[in-house]
Amino acid sequence: MWVISRKKLVEAAARHGDLDGALDAWYKLTKQANWTCIADVRLLFSRADVAGTCTVFNIKGNTYRLIAWIDYRSQKVFIRHILTHAEYDKEEWKNDCSGD
Description:
The chain has about 100 residues and is an alpha+beta fold. It has helices spanning about 5-15, 20-30, 40-45, 85-90; strands spanning about 1-5, 50, 55-60, 65-70, 75-85. It has one domain: 2-Layer Sandwich (YaeB-like fold).
């Protein structure tokens, strides 16, 4: 998969010092993946969930959430948000995943 954009991972790790290793691990696994559907994603990230047009990944023991849109055909993962659990619970991110 082609992850767009790694810059968002670096910025999130800079904001949250405890996140660097977890995001790096997610990036390395995702970059090597070849997903065709959510079932493929769940083989690597069993707790990944679909929310509208996006996929939500639990990061660092569910302390953070990475929200991405996956284009399986082009093998691209577009990172939309990296949020704390509290930010995620506000559900403002859902506007980017509604499919409208």
